[in-house]
Amino acid sequence: MATIDTILSETRVFAPSEAFRKQATVSGMDAYKALCAKAESDYEGFWGALAKEHISWHKPFSNVLDETKAPFYRWFYDGEMNVSYNCLDRHLADKSNKTALIFEADDGKVTKVTYQDLYHRVCQFANALKAQGVAKGDRVIIYMPMSIEAVVAMQACARIGGIHSVVFGGFSAKSLHERIIDAGAKLVITADEGMRGGKAVALKSAVDDAIGMGGCDCVEKVVVYKRTGGNVHWDAQRDQWWHEAIIGQADTCEPVWVNAEDPLFILYTSGSTGKPKGVQHSSAGFLLGAILSMKWVFDHKADDVYWCTADVGWITGHTYVAYGPLAMGGTEVIFEGVPTYPDAGRFWKLIQDHKVTTFYTAPTAIRSLIKLGSDLPKQYDLSSLRLLGTVGEPINPEAWMWYYETVGQGHCPIVDTWWQTETGSNMIAPLPGAVPTKPGSCTLPLPGIIADIVDEQGGPIEKGQGGILVIKRPFPSQLRTLWGDPERYKNTYFPAELGGKMYLAGDSAHRDKDGYFWIMGRIDDVLNVSGHRLGTMEIESALVANPLVAEAAVVGKPHDIKGESVVAFVVLKGQRPTGDAAREVVAQLREWVGKEIGPIAKPDEIRFGDNLPKTRSGKIMRRLLRSIAKGEEITSDTSTLENPAILEQLKETVK
Ligand code: WTA
């Protein structure tokens, strides 16, 4: 993978083609600059006009932004609306027969759903949820495979003012347990099993295990969508099949009008402590961010076929699968399976078969597909594509170029979109008909997003220097708080050192002479493994919860495909193992972390020491561990270490 130096010496620039520019929603640099200038000259007027234009309001708002309780901001806060109404009902007049969803199952079976169908399915399920006792403000956990039903479940919650919290199907029962309790969920929606790459993935049994761990008295019902028909344990009091729950339910359902600020969802993400953060999003502000980025960044048009490959368990799957494309009245592809099944041409075949115009995926997927067949895309007809996007981690220029030339055949702009679970929608990304792109840079902020790079006190940095990425003014799609933990929200995102009003993203970045942003990585203890956020502390807590383990420290190490891999340094309670014994413990601990958090968090490498490198005050020197993990020579002074000899031991890998 490219180092930051090669990225910063990248000089290639790709201006939008004349043809693309001409048809683009925001056409040309002057149009982009005009939007930015408008935002700067009248910030509230800018956002207020956009919110009026793009959202259908039940009761119009008269106030745009309330900063009196900063950093607890409120937007459009005396308005009333409903997100599901905005995604479905408002398209029925002229798009009822338009395809909303093209679902392709793992085995290739395709199901298409029109706006009319989707509306009825959402309404019917919303009525079923009401019948199960779900009311406005109740939390609903959704633990489902990629499916039409997952989108229906999310939309149905939104329709009745329920707050969903989707938990990625790859998270373990233990992680699910923690989230059910933190959210105080009344209902859990799941499936018997999911299908990925020809294999069934148990979901219902994880829900049983999670609830079985105790403390989940809040959960009254579990609704189960039958995907595979696999065997499941059944609790007749608590469990209810999806297909039975909807019997007799009307297929229309008056939306519950909610306040613009009422929470739409909570999504848990990793931070720098062991406990995941429940990022809470609003209804109207979130929706506005989704719509504007669909329009500005994805240049969405009525005849587009949009495909975002993210799972609904992540923020990308919320904004760009469950809400954004539907709010636009667009047609989108939803894919159940994996990019490598039945072979590494699956993505390209899907693009060909469904005539996808806009394709949005993660750099890690691109890198792994290059490795599995850099010529494979040429065997498919990809001529429908007109725009490509990436998200989740920095993309190295080589992967960018391959994406541009081999997938986009040199005529599709690439939108490298920087944003986060907390920001709700794209923040820094090229407007493809305006902003020339550079491989590896997410380019310039969206209009109205006042992003900057500052030093640790929030002050300006010297030109050309790196610093910490902040957003200086509140924006509609940002998180409102952390569920149940407003103090943590304040301290994490609006630290006093930065004046308490700037949003601290947690990334470091650099700006080049054209003002382009280059993201350099996290400044906290968060890893980015295959585009998934993992807290080092989370993995460490999981490891030390194992009876064999006395101490653990986890660091990231650059990885060609995954971006970063997880390296754990472990001190066992017993003797430091070697040979077969070490291999045996490594296997056990990886399995353990898989159960504690989920398979995505399994350390790629585990090394054993009699101790960890610590300062005399007992602080673990992670910087040294990162160097050891990378196999770098340690040149810095290690004399402040309590136990310098330990470094040699930790260089040994378990083979
Ligand atoms: C990283 C995903 C470089 C970044 C939407 C951020 C990126 C974290 C990019 C958020 C990008 C996301 N270029 N880095 N285009 N997009 N990141 O919350 O470190 O899962 O802070 O949201 O991913 O990850 P999250």
Automatic annotation (TrEMBL):
The keyword Chloroplast does not apply. CoA binds at R196, G197, G198, K199, T316, S530. Residues 89-474 form the AMP-dependent synthetase/ligase domain. Residues 32-87 form the Acetyl-coenzyme A synthetase N-terminal domain. InterPro entries: Ac_CoA_lig, ACAS_N, AMP-bd_C, AMP-bd_C_sf, AMP-binding_CS, AMP-dep_synth/lig_dom, ANL_N_sf. It is an enzyme of class 6 (ligase). GO terms for cellular component: cytosol. GO terms for molecular function: acetate-CoA ligase activity; AMP binding; ATP binding; metal ion binding. It catalyses: acetate + ATP + CoA = acetyl-CoA + AMP + diphosphate. PROSITE patterns: AMP_BINDING. The modification N6-acetyllysine is found at K619. Its cofactor is Mg(2+). ATP binds at G392, E393, P394, D416, T417, W418, W419, Q420, T421, D507, R522, R533. Keywords: Acetylation, ATP-binding, Ligase, Magnesium, Metal-binding, Nucleotide-binding. It comes from the Bacteria. This is Acetyl-coenzyme A synthetase.
